[in-house]
Amino acid sequence: MTFLRDLPESAEDCLGMIPRKSRASTRHARDRHQMELVEGHACFDRFYELFVQNKRNLGSPVFARSFFARLLHLYGAEALIHGVRCQGRIVAGVLSFVFRDTLMPYYSGSEEAAERLGSMNFMYWKLMEAGVERGLKRFDFGRSRAGTGASTFKQNMGFEPAPLHYEYYLRRGAEIPSVNPSNPRFDGVKRLWRRLPLPLVRLLGPPLMKYLP
């Protein structure tokens, strides 16, 4: 499924796009926990640290830090780094891309404790505001498999899922590949990966990524 939505003309209308329950969490993050969105490459190191933590907790390998540094260099002003600051420290971060009139948040991470305080709701709300202020027209929340936590989160933020259609050319007798985290064949590997210390995740993850589709 993919999640794409038009942005309003005014940044002030972005909060109203979010359904009531998630809107309340977003307000609490802003008012009760004093979260704020910050932008710039100064957030990069913390963003990558949070991204690695998040992927490790999901049981997934990670790209190298140099991969993201290269993206920022290649895309220049069309690659944006944002962080959510709470009590003086960055607790969530996101790397987004701008394509024509569309803002696309693509890689993200956050502290688990901060997620419970609404950091992710707050971050994507403020990111939508930032898109409007840049004159962008659409917000592309990307793809998520139906029934996953990511899919549910995006729907709770007011985005309607739209189906994506894929075609496969298979040799006779072959089956459609099922290389995704929902495949029970990967459960043991994911459990093992979640137990690894972060330095080992950063070391082993990048070489493994080249073998994943």
Number of helices: 8
CATH fold name: Aminopeptidase
Output the helix-strand order.
Answer: EHEHHEEEHHEHEHH
Note poorly predicted spans.
none
CATH superfamily: Gcn5-related N-acetyltransferase (GNAT)
Supply the number of structural domains: 1
Under the CATH scheme, the architecture is 3-Layer(aba) Sandwich
Q: Find the count of extended strands (DSSP E, 2+ residues).
A: 7
The level of helicity is 40-55%
Gyration radius, rounded: 18 Å
* The CATH C-level class name: Alpha Beta
What is the distance, rounded to the nearest whole angstrom, between the alpha carbons of the first and last residues? Answer: 18 Å
Biggest sheet strand line-up: 2-3-4-5-6-1-7
What would your notes on this structure say?
- This protein is 40% helix and 21% strand.
- It has eight helices and seven strands; from the N terminus they run E-H-E-H-H-E-E-E-H-H-E-H-E-H-H.
- It has helices spanning 20-31, 44-58, 65-75, 112-116, 119-133, 149-156, 187-194, 198-209; strands at 2-6, 36-39, 79-86, 89-99, 102-110, 138-143, 161-162.
- A seven-stranded mixed β-sheet has the order 2-3-4-5-6-1-7.
- The radius of gyration is 18 Å and the shape is globular.
- It starts with a strand and ends with a helix.
- The mean pLDDT is 93.
